[in-house]
Amino acid sequence: MRALSFVAVAAFSFAFAAANASERVTLHLGFLTLRSISLPVVVFTSALVGMVVVFLVGLKADLRTRQLLQRYRQALEGDQEPRRGTLPSD
Question: Which residues share a beta bridge with 34?
Answer without folding.
Answer: 27
